Amino acid sequence: MTTCDIPKAFHIMAKPTGSACNLRCGYCFFLKKEKLYPGSDFRMPAQVHEAYIRQLLESHRTPRVTVAWQGGEPTLMGLDFFRHSVELQKKHRKPGAHIENTFQTNGILLNDEWCRFFGENNFLVGLSIDGPGELHDFHRKDKAGRGTFDRVVRAARLLQKHKVECNILCTVNSKNAAHPLDVYRFFRDELGFSYIQFIPIVERAENPPCPPLEKGGALVETVTHRSVQPEQFGRFLIEIFDEWVRRDVGRTFVLNFDGALAGWLGVAGTVCIFGPTCGLGMALEHNGDLYSCDHFVEPDHYLGNILETPMIDLVASEQQRKFGRDKKDALPRYCRECPVLSICNGECPKNRFCKTPDGEPGLNYLCAGYKAFFKHADKSMRIMAELIRTNRPASEVMAIVAREKGDLKTRFASAGRNDPCPCGSGMKFKKCHGN
Ligand code: SF4
Ligand code: SF4
User: Fold this and answer.
1) Is the pTM above the cut of 0.70?
2) Which residues line ligand 2 (CB under 6 A)?
3) CATH hierarchy code of domain 11-209+220-330
4) pLDDT per residue over 21-72, tens digit each?
5) Distance CA 213, CA 297 (A)
6) Which residues belong to CATH 3.20.20.70 in the chain?
7) Which of 110, 215, 255, 285 could form a disulfide with 197 if both were Cys (CB 3.0 to 4.6 A apart)?
């Protein structure tokens, strides 16, 4: 291994309670990971905790370091664990280092004490919520089967009261996917949050035959009924994008859109799924076991234990580097020849379980949705990329879109039935917008 092979910075999601959680969300993939550690109490011991913080801070060669907490449900460790963590971070901090803690939670156990602590220590909190009450409660239930909406909204208000920086993490599943604007407007207008991330639920059914890509309806057989369908996910993104690009650019931040915009700008984005390669975001189990990624916590992607092998050796290992390169190397020809490859890059390998129309394995389940979304967003994304390149705010796109919409309306009003449609579809007006 040469120094060039050792990353300067990387990201580790630590799971101090392993897969233990106080909820039973229908689609949670992590609950099943319990089987990896039979008989475990799922609590990170002090020795692992200190090794994680010390090795993470020592290994970074950048001033900025993220300490990421996730689950399961990390609040089950109790607040004292995280108070101690902040002390450990002070103890092992390199001079000049800027440490940021991120914390993903379902919000159920949050109270004033937790939120005060988050605020005082600049934690960035990711709160899981799937939209308005009925849509949220459909899958996000507690162990007694009761919906959790009221408790999560209470947590959101407490976080706001203590001025905690907060992101909404919203899964897109078969239930809420049909209501994109209700979901988006709820976060923006009713909860008043400005940072939102949408995470598609794609759960593979047990031993399904993988149907051909183009048979939209048949894809239901490939995945569980909770999963979002590819075209549905594309429509979900498109409807929200249209609202966002008209009125919210620069005010509301949708990670999915920012991540995709990086592709139009030709720069490395912060969203691993759209990068050509990955492998710099690993998952740390409660006992110190390190895995290639949060979505690959399984024996085949076990890298080693940080109490036995230094974290940086595992991060820079050939096994992990190959994992990252495979994102690009394993793409089917259909993706390599795709017009939006530079934006999509085949998305996340965990979703690549379908076959291409010519029968090659490795196509992403969400392909049809992403293709539709990237095609739809192309013009506005190009405009934003150009604005940013010329040091102008991307939010100027809103005025451009409004002007074009106004122009289009005028041209619709004066178009004859047999004229080409002013929208540029190539169809006659009477068959397109004049219909
Ligand atoms: S496997 Fe998917 S989620 Fe994991 S690092 Fe790669 S792109 Fe990201
Ligand atoms: S849109 Fe589909 S074909 Fe194109 S790169 Fe993405 S997954 Fe591959």
Assistant:
1) yes
2) 334-335, 338, 340-341, 344, 346-347, 364, 367, 370-371
3) 3.20.20.70
4) 888 888 876 666 778 899 899 999 999 999 999 999 999 999 999 999 998 8
5) 27
6) 11-209+220-330
7) 255
